[in-house]
Task: inverse folding
């Protein structure tokens, strides 16, 4: 097994990590860096629990090899909040009761955050579509969808 | 400070307190079992599983696997002769002599990496003698079927489960009430139907994961995603023949359970492996594929219903036969058979009932508890029959239900009386909210619109004496630490326990913490986090513990102030006297006590309140008739309705609107109660429209998220309404009873009834996929 030294910016910190060729980004985050907020639900790119931002785009980190991320910028759930306050989508999902077991939550937050970045005022259909790859078994999605709407309103007030 | 009426429901009971665990869950800080870091001594376990549904093990050769560099241990059933199981001990930890389903664990490996462990599995050689499998529960119950558990008669079993030695029937529950045979003549309308409900899986987004470590003295520590830390401690200890005190279970947040993480399933495997590599933590994380067929699945059901009513629509008789497909081992599932038996009338008063509910061994995946514990499966058919019977006698389906449903004091199918219930209100509210009796036009010419309603009841199904305990201690600053042994699965129980402790003690909600993670070494005993029993049972324990702490505090202050405790209260974290109007904050006094006047010593001291709850009134039922004084602790009741559209071109169903109303006794946190109703509705909808474990010759053919579809954000209805009815439970904390599981019980039949209303077809069972609905419409000549 070959090993590679990569440089990667994670939540604004530059990290140098040695990774085997077959290590996924998800495993690098969870095991090499102990950033366990990113969850492993299926290791097959189907449940969305491991969603992170890779150069601004939401990806299933279980489907990305760590070695591909040399020079990339990664944002995980641990990096969503600012120093003093939560991201609007984090605030909104707490307020609207969109969290239950919490296991899908990190992926839901990253996907929603990415949606609101590219589309600050999404319609209900656009929200549903943006979250279709993030499975949730607890909430029935109702309060999650509402959270994204509320976060959009919070953002429009602050900007 | 204003005087408050001490009989009032105290704040924050009934308020929408924010979730206590929300902030750590949205920042990625919340720790789940797979997040715990064990360092370099961690070993990884993988399991060699049976490729056959039914076979004898002739030989296992582990020599090559053991010789593989990096492999630290290989274990088989040879090493672990003890049986394991909750109600019926019918399982070995690893198979011994026989495999009974595809996926049955035959051997286990611990290695320095998952890859090496996986490779070692390929080097384990197992010789099988293939046997005829049992793939259908009705056939399995017949004398023609091959015997899957020849030792059934010798298995240890609790006294309310009745295995039939020499058959594949691991439990037979009977109801014999009234005179069914002569009742049929008096019926003006009779319906007879058969339904088939497929196996489905819980699909928690967090797969099962457990890490075990055994130290040199044989003490076991298990870090696990678990609904049942204490039951696991007990069952693993008993199976291995060691003291419960030698097993410590540490259970952090659970990423979804729905029953699959109750009892013991894969946890015992990793403990067994860890006994061979002392000092090393050994982790077993199920793959998503393993999750689908080697963790528990929901039982399949073949159900026969016959029911009749008189010319006024009053139900006179029911005759039900349930064949539960229990799978290879039914140690937990046997009680689903019992629960469906003692609830087999549905939420109706029926004078004459005959029920036979059979739990049948098959060579299918192991079944166990899943949200609803048999009730969604049973109600799926029963509530469709009710609609059909109403139609046959010429009554509106809602009026028929109002006439026949259980009211306070109704005689139950087990012969006892119904406690106070708001079921009639639930039906009324639900019907109103769905605009029952009106029909909106479809959204397009190729669509048909329909409405359906169904009602339900469900009791916590558990041993009669399942107990809860709790402690409440206070810190110097007056903050409160609450110890519980029940688990936060997402249902919100930690929030509700904090509310109850705050309310019972008289402190602000914000000053209460829950002592987590649950750790059997430090946390108080709790039977299991199942049966929607925690708000009620653990809630009573927490309230009792808080009251005990309060009594200790008030005694100390009363003595110091030379008043009586009855004149004192704690309000918002301050002890007040209604008599002298003196006040003193809790801080410091709850640890240091209070000084006696003139420096003459101290009174009081550190406050630790303790509380417990165990129902003492549940009686046995006659094994021949199922009749008895009190079968269960209580029933939660409720109703759901849906409005949907069927696409005539494709058969696709779209749920336009869903309504849920449940009688929860007292909603401790109304928004979280509604969130349970919404989540349950969508899980029920998912099971109605999409979900089935496709079993073929004992193999699960769709063990992935691509082939086993669950509801996504695109599928959830645009409009979901939830209503709360509150008819208090006499022994519930502030009147509360459970809601978590109930919310998916009536969803399948509500949807089925709406499909019938829209296009006039009924299917033998879910899922009501577009293909099946289209073909049914084709058969019925509705489309060409």
Result:
């Amino acid at each position: 097994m070959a090993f590679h030294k990569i440089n990667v910016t994670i939540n604004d910190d530059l990290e140098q990590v040695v990774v085997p060729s077959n290590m996924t980004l998800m495993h690098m985050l969870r095991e090499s860096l102990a950033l366990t907020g990113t969850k492993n639900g299926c290791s097959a790119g189907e449940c969305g629990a491991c969603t992170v931002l890779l150069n601004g785009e939401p990806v299933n980190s279980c489907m990305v090899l760590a070695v591909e991320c040399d020079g990339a910028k990664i944002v995980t759930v641990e990096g969503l909040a600012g120093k003093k306050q939560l991201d609007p989508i984090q605030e909104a999902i707490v307020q609207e009761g969109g969290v239950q077991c919490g296991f899908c939550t990190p992926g839901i937050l990253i996907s929603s955050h990415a949606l609101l970045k590219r589309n600050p005022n999404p319609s209900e259909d656009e929200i549903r579509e943006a979250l279709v790859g993030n499975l949730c078994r607890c909430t029935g999605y109702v309060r999650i969808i509402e959270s994204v709407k509320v976060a959009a309103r919070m953002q429009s007030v602050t900007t | 400070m204003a005087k408050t009426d001490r009989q009032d429901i105290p704040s924050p009971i009934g308020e929408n307190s924010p979730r206590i665990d929300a902030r750590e869950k949205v920042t990625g800080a919340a720790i789940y079992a797979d997040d715990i870091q064990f360092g370099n001594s961690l070993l990884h376990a993988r399991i060699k599983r049976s490729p056959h549904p039914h076979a004898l093990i002739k030989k296992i050769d582990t020599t090559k696997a053991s010789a593989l560099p990096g492999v630290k241990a290989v274990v088989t059933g040879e090493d672990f002769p003890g049986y394991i199981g909750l109600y019926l001990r019918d399982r070995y930890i690893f198979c011994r002599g026989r495999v009974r389903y595809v996926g049955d664990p035959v051997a286990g490996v611990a290695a320095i990496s998952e890859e090496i462990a996986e490779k070692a599995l390929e080097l384990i050689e197992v010789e099988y003698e293939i046997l005829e499998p049992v793939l259908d529960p009705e056939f399995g119950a017949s004398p023609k079927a091959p015997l899957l558990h020849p030792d059934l008669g010798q298995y240890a079993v609790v006294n309310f489960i009745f295995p039939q030695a020499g058959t594949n029937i691991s439990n037979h529950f009977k109801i014999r009430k009234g005179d069914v045979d002569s009742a049929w003549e008096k019926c003006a309308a009779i319906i007879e139907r058969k339904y088939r409900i497929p196996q489905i899986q819980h699909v928690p987004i967090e797969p099962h994961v457990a890490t075990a470590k055994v130290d040199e003295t044989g003490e076991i520590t298990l870090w696990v995603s678990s609904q049942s830390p204490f039951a696991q401690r007990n069952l693993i200890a008993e199976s291995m023949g060691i003291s419960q005190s030698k097993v410590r279970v540490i259970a952090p947040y659970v990423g979804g359970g729905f029953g699959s993480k109750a009892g013991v399933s894969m946890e015992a495997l990793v403990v067994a492996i860890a006994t061979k590599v002392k000092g090393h933590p050994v982790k077993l994380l199920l793959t998503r594929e393993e999750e689908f067929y080697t963790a528990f699945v929901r039982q399949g059901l073949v159900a026969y219903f016959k029911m009749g009513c008189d010319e006024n629509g009053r139900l006179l008789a029911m005759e039900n036969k349930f064949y539960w497909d229990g799978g290879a081992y039914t140690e937990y599932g046997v009680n689903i058979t019992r629960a469906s038996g003692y609830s087999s009338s549905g939420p109706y008063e029926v004078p004459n009932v005959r029920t036979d509910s059979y739990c049948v061994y098959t060579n299918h995946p192991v079944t166990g508890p899943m949200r609803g514990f048999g009730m969604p499966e049973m109600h799926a058919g029963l509530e469709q029959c009710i609609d059909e019977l109403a139609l046959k006698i010429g009554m509106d389906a809602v009026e028929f239900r109002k006439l026949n449903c259980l009211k306070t004091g109704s005689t139950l199918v087990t012969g006892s009386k119904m406690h106070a219930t708001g079921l009639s209100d639930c039906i009324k509210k639900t019907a109103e909210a769905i605009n029952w009796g009106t029909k909106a036009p479809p959204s397009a010419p190729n669509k048909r619109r329909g409405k359906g309603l169904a009602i339900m009841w469900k009791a916590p199904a558990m041993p009669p004496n399942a107990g809860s305990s709790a402690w409440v201690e206070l810190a110097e600053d007056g903050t409160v630490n609450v110890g519980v042994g029940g688990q936060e699965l997402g249902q919100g129980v930690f929030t509700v326990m904090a509310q109850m402790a705050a309310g019972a003690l008289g402190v602000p909600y914000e000053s209460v913490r829950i002592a987590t993670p649950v750790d059997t070494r430090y946390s108080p005993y709790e039977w299991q986090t199942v049966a929607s029993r925690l708000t009620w049972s653990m809630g009573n324990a927490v309230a009792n513990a808080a009251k005990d702490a309060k009594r200790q505090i008030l005694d100390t202050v009363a003595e110091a102030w030379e008043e009586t405790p009855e004149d004192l209260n704690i309000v918002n974290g301050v002890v007040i006297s209604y008599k002298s109007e003196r006040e003193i904050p809790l801080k410091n006094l709850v640890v240091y006590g209070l000084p006696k006047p003139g420096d003459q010593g101290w009174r009081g001291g550190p406050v630790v309140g303790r509380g417990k709850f165990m129902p003492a009134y549940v009686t046995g039922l006659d094994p021949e008739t199922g009749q008895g004084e009190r079968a269960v602790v209580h029933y939660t009741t409720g109703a759901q309705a849906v409005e949907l559209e069927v696409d005539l071109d494709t058969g696709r169903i779209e749920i336009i609107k869903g309504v849920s109303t449940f009688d929860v006794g007292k909603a401790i946190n109304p928004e979280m109660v509604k969130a349970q109703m919404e989540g349950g509705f969508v899980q029920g909808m998912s099971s109605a429209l999409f979900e089935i474990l496709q079993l073929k010759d004992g193999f699960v053919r769709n063990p992935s998220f691509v082939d086993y579809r669950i509801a996504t954000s695109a599928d959830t209805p645009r409009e979901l309404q939830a209503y709360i009815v509150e008819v208090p439970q006499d022994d519930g904390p502030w009147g509360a009873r459970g809601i978590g599981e109930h919310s998916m019980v009536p969803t399948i039949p509500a949807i089925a009834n709406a499909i019938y209303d829209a296009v006039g077809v009924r299917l033998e069972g879910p899922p009501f996929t577009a293909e099946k609905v289209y073909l049914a419409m084709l058969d019925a000549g509705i489309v060409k």
